[in-house]
Amino acid sequence: MKIEILELIDGAKKAKGLTVIIDVFRAFTLEAYLFAQGAEKIYPIGQIEEAFDLKRQHPDWLLFGERGGAIVPGCDYGNSPSAIADMEFTGRTIIHTTSAGTQGIINAKGASEIITGSLTNARAVADYIRKMNPESVSLVAMGNSGIRRANEDVLCAEYIKSILQDEPIDVAKAAAALRTNGGEHFFDENRQHIYPKADFYYSTKIDIFPFVIKIGTDSEERYIAAVQNIVK
């Protein structure tokens, strides 16, 4: 199995084979919590205009939108996992547009299959890859806005790769260190309205979900995410 770690939107464009789009702070952490709390399906949308158009067509769907970390005015929610922690989403359909994670999905045109990744389900991702046993795996660390390296995404990619190579790293220690090595914005008192401190802790919980988020397409060829539980 050839395993390659790529980064940013350019990396997503180069991805081949079974591709994992990784966004720890916070897109795919949020989606993992949404599915754990009952969401039926999620539409990852690249352009905010397209997301609003889809919301107009389906007003009962919930719109989660983020740009520059902040909620996009007019959206139902932003990109914060802690903000929805105690909410029920059973059977709900979600529209989700962000500046990094969803952009990776849209740009991974060369992938044979796309799943998403975060620290919350990294081992499940590795187990799924082992089960599928592809010739080629691309682990894409999406970074900040898809244009600048983010240590948390690289860590998640390295952790998944280490499991696949049977040499798991001490990810818990490394994740805790992100507080001063990539997660500082969550502890800036002037930015709590955008980056709640609790989001750091929700995003750095390790392997709490036993499922992967698979990306497919619907009847109109829009990307759509759904959950598949992993049975070892």
Task: Give descriptors for this structure.
232 residues, alpha/beta, 4-stranded mixed β-sheet
Radius of gyration: 16 Å
What pattern of helices and strands is seen along the backbone?
A: EHEHEHEEEHEHEHHHEE
Helix proportion range: 25-40%
Poorly predicted sequence stretches spanning 5 or more consecutive residues: none
Explain what you see.
The strands form 2 sheets. Strands 1-8-2-7-9-10 form a 6-stranded mixed beta sheet, sandwiched between helices. A 4-stranded mixed beta sheet has the order 3-6-4-5, sandwiched between helices. A hairpin with a 5-residue loop joins strand 9 and strand 10. It has 232 residues and is of the alpha/beta class. The mean pLDDT is 97. It starts with a strand and ends with a strand. It contains 8 helices and 10 strands. 31% of the residues lie in helices and 24% in strands. Helix 1 runs parallel beside helix 4 and helix 5 packs across helix 6.
Please summarize what this structure is.
The protein is α/β, with parallel strands linked by helices. Helix content is 31%, strand content 24%. The chain is built from eight helices and ten strands.
Write the layout of secondary structure elements.
Layout: E1 2-7, H1 8-14, E2 17-22, H2 27-36, E3 41-44, H3 48-57, E4 62-67, E5 70-71, E6 93-97, H4 101-107, E7 111-117, H5 122-132, E8 136-141, H6 151-164, H7 171-177, H8 197-203, E9 211-217, E10 223-229
Parallel strand pairs: 1-8, 2-7, 2-8, 3-6, 4-6
Antiparallel strand pairs: 4-5, 7-9, 9-10
